[in-house]
Amino acid sequence: MAGVTGVLDDPPRFPQAPLPVDVLEGGKLTSNYPFRAPHYSLESFAVVGGAVAIPGGDASSEDALNGTAIEGYLARRVGRSRMAYNIVPPVVTGPPEFERTFRAHQNCVEFYPLFLVSMWTCGTFFSEVIAAAGGLVYMVARQMYFSGYITSPKKRLPGFILNLVVLGILSLLGSIGVLRGILYKYFLI
After folding, report:
1. CA-to-CA distance for 180 and 125, rounded, in angstroms?
2. Residue 66 CB contacts under 8 Å (≥ 6 apart), including other chains
3. How far is the C-alpha of 163 from the C-alpha of 21, rounded, in Å?
4. Among 73, 114, 120, 161, whose Cα sits 20 to 30 Å from the Cα of 48?
5. Which of 167, 162, 159, 170 is nearest to 104 (CA)?
6. At what angle do helices 96-125 and 157-187 cross, to 10 degrees?
7. Beta-bridge partners for 28
8. pLDDT at residue 122, as a whole number
9. Are 173 and 118 in contact (CB under 8 A)?
10. CA-to-CA distance for 96 and 101, rounded, in angstroms?
């Protein structure tokens, strides 16, 4: 029977909004929204791993790949610094120049998961374009931070502050997108 929902129905993949369907309720044919019935324990986005389809590609994934390449480049800089100062792993102490290079790289590694989560959340639930732009600014700021830190610890601050601003904006916009989705999905606002 076309248009009647049930427990065995396949949820649509990547819905933009709940699709109205015709269902039988008390012998009458009415329009209703799927995934509001109590027998669905997972929403469609939880099943398929994303709330919306991303038209035209996934720019934040490209930023993530570029960010990974930058992390690799920074790790190579630490390796070169190890060779220059003859510091064999696992030793992480040595001349101040090496320690600054090592610490700058470690800080970049520590912030990378925060960057990925905030960028992907913003891109999935708010705006892919803003997430991609934020990702690019973040990578430039990370390079500013790294280069500044190697020179002098005080010169790291402009890049670090820019990183915090970008992470804050991406996190805020991602949270707004998630809240907007919850309000629309459960309260039809």
Report:
1. 8
2. 135, 139
3. 46
4. 114
5. 159
6. 20
7. 25
8. 93
9. no
10. 9
**Alpha-carbon gap, residue 142 to 133, rounded angstroms:** 14
Nearest to 173 by CA among 121, 129, 138: 121
The sign one gets for the Cα dihedral 10, 49, 57, 52 is positive
Alpha carbon distance 59, 101 (integer Å): 30
Q: Distance between CA atoms of 71 and 116, rounded to whole angstroms?
A: 13
Residue 124 CA to residue 122 CA, distance in Å, equals: 6
Task: Report the C-alpha gap between 172 and 160 in whole angstroms.
Answer: 18
The type of residue at 108 is: C
pTM above threshold 0.85: no
The pLDDT assigned to 53 comes to 45
Provide the 10 A C-beta neighbour count for residue 63: 24
CA dist 118 and 170 (Å) reads 5
Number of CB atoms found within 10 A of residue 83's CB: 10
> What does the pLDDT read at residue 20?
53
Packing angle between helix 59-85 and helix 128-151, nearest 10 degrees?
A: 10
The pair of three-digit structure tokens given for residue 162, joined into one six-digit string: 């820019």
Question: CB 69: neighbour CB atoms within 10 A?
Answer: 11
